[in-house]
Amino acid sequence: NDDHFYLASETGDLICAKVSPKGYEEISRANLLKPTNAAFNRDVLWSHPAFANKCIYWRNDAELICVSLAE
Fold it and tell me: What are 8-22's pLDDT values in tens digits?
């Protein structure tokens, strides 16, 4: 969707949000992966996801996942 953006958090959440000059509006959030590294005294997931064919591909040190983003 043209007005929605997918954001990946360092805690393993995939966030769908509307972002505009008026601000940020979170539409939904789902935890997809567990962080498997540590930095600054907290658990983190710093791998960048890839998006292709209406799917997100994302990995940590234990697994690689593919999740459909198709509606």
Answer: 999 999 999 999 899
Backbone conformation region of residue 27, classed left if phi is above 0, alpha if psi is from -120 to 50, else beta: alpha
Total domain count for the chain? Answer: 1
**pLDDT at position 28 over 80:** yes
Q: Which long-range contacts (CB under 8 A, 24 or more apart) does 24-30 make?
A: none
Domain that holds residue 22: 4-68
pLDDT of residue 65: 98
